[in-house]
Automatic annotation (TrEMBL):
It comes from Microbacterium galbinum. Gene3D superfamilies: Aspartate Aminotransferase, domain 1, Type I PLP-dependent aspartate aminotransferase-like (Major domain). This is Cysteine desulfurase. Its cofactor is pyridoxal 5'-phosphate. Catalyzes the removal of elemental sulfur and selenium atoms from L-cysteine, L-cystine, L-selenocysteine, and L-selenocystine to produce L-alanine. CDD domains: SufS_like (cd06453). PANTHER family: CYSTEINE DESULFURASE, CYSTEINE DESULFURASE 1, CHLOROPLASTIC. The lineage of its organism: Bacteria, Bacillati, Actinomycetota, Actinomycetes, Micrococcales. InterPro entries: Aminotrans_V_dom, Aminotrans_V_PyrdxlP_BS, Cys_dSase_SufS, PyrdxlP-dep_Trfase, PyrdxlP-dep_Trfase_major, PyrdxlP-dep_Trfase_small. It catalyses: (sulfur carrier)-H + L-cysteine = (sulfur carrier)-SH + L-alanine. It comes from the Bacteria. Pfam families: Aminotran_5.
């Protein structure tokens, strides 16, 4: 999906629809510190509806068995459910079934690609893997706003191969310096890794321009879709990326499961990362032959119930409609941005960036540490994230060491957004931080 397509009209969720949806999420009826829970930390981990909780429990109580092993009925049923889940996730992002690799999370998926390219670079994979090999003089490109998971693996890959890591800088507001693309993505670039949506700023990056430049020089593209797949319509083919990663626990699914999308023709020439059982065809004491993708990258016992629960989450999101979820969050995000921005002493990071956003805002309160802001809000039953959000370079570029982040989702109400805004204003009064 192109960023411009986000302007296509979609009807936001109504207040009544959100109230009905909230009944599907048992945790949202909780109280915290004597207050109704206002959960504004979905950017870190989203909550799970009954449909997801029930899917995992049903598998455990009815179908639990090892997949792709055994010839008994239960094993066959478990395998069918596992592969149906793969097909569901593939459809959700516009991929084919055999282009989805199950991982434990997006971090593992990113490391899978990094280590596979590293293995190719030392000669594993044979002549077919030659296009994947990195050498001294080659370049890996990422950006200054990345989550550490989309930065450190590439630092390590550069160190192992002798390649050079280049970083697309940000402007003073925190936006990508797209005017420097030709400077940073040169004909020496072999891989470009970029986040679709910033987990700190909430901006939807114009990744089409980054991808187009990568295509001009023949570089592969890795898309971090962890903050876009839960909130926006996503089509990896329309975006023309080579790889994409997502994490189940950010999109109504369980922890312990994520997915890597890889173009079939690339997965077919990539050497494996993890090795062992279930990813081989023939083994002798001296060598092994590996299965075709995606099983080549799924060594050992798989996260079966989690994958099935993630598919249930995808079905839940699909039934509501991703365009409507995006429209709902755009409204919440604007309300959050406007409300926080109107408070004296509050700086919303990236507020000056003129790009579409998901319903997320990180902010700094003058004179109050983010941890104190978060604790004050928690005393009111409001859950937010504090710290550097695994994005230290971005915070450093913007001149802060940490921030408070409020992130919404399909079950977030206007009243909860207002509670955050009122709570921040009250925190400033409480700590005596007004000028």
């Amino acid at each position: 999906m192109s960023t411009s397509s986000l302007t296509a009209p979609a009807t936001p969720l109504s207040d009544d629809e959100v109230r009905r949806l909230r009944e599907d999420f048992p945790i949202l009826a909780s109280t915290v510190n004597g207050h109704p829970l206002a959960y504004l930390d979905s950017g870190a981990t989203s909550q799970r509806p009954f449909a997801v909780l029930d899917a995992e429990r049903e598998f455990a109580t009815t179908f639990n068995s090892a997949v792709h092993r055994g010839a008994h009925t239960l094993a066959a049923e478990a395998t069918e459910l596992f592969e149906d889940a793969r097909a569901t996730v593939a459809r959700f992002i516009g991929a084919d079934d055999d282009e989805i690799v199950w991982t434990s999370n997006a971090t593992e998926a990113l490391n899978l690609v990094a280590y596979s390219l590293s293995n190719a670079s030392i000669g594993r994979g044979g002549a077919a893997a030659e296009p994947l090999r990195l050498r001294a003089g080659d370049e890996i490109v990422t950006t200054e706003m990345e989550h550490h998971a989309n930065l450190i693996p590439w630092q390590e890959l550069a160190a192992r191969t002798g390649a050079t890591l280049r970083v697309i800088p940000l402007d003073d507001d925190g936006a990508l310096r797209l005017d420097t693309l030709a400077e940073h993505i040169t004909d020496r670039a072999k891989l470009v890794a970029v986040t679709h949506v910033s987990n700190v700023l909430g901006v939807i990056n114009p990744v089409e321009r980054v991808i187009a430049r990568a295509r001009e020089v023949g570089a592969l593209v890795m898309l971090d879709a962890c903050q876009s797949a839960p909130h926006l319509p996503l089509d990896v083919r329309a975006l023309d990326v080579d790889f994409a990663v997502l994490s189940g626990h950010k999109m109504l699914g369980p922890t312990g499961v994520g997915a890597l999308y890889g173009r079939r023709e690339l997965l077919e020439i990539m050497p494996p990362f993890l090795t062992g059982g279930s990813m081989i065809t023939t083994v002798t004491t001296t060598e092994a032959e590996y299965m075709a993708p995606p099983q080549r990258f799924e060594a050992g016992t798989q996260r079966v119930s989690q994958a099935i629960a993630l598919a249930a989450a995808v079905d839940y999101l699909t039934e509501i409609g991703m365009p409507r979820i995006a429209a709902h969050e755009a409204q919440l995000g604007a309300r959050l941005l406007d409300g926080l921005g109107a408070i004296d002493g509050v700086r919303v990071l990236g507020a000056g960036i003129a790009l579409p956003r998901v319903g997320l805002a990180s902010f700094d309160v003058a004179g109050i540490h983010s941890h104190d802001v978060g604790q004050f809000l928690d005393d009111r039953g409001i859950a937010v994230r504090v710290g550097h959000h695994c994005a230290q370079p971005l915070h450093r570029r913007l001149g802060v060491t940490s921030s408070t982040r409020a992130s919404t989702y399909l079950y977030t109400t206007d009243a909860e957004v207002d509670a955050v805004i009122d709570g921040v204003a009250a925190a400033i009064d409480f700590f005596g931080a007004r000028s």
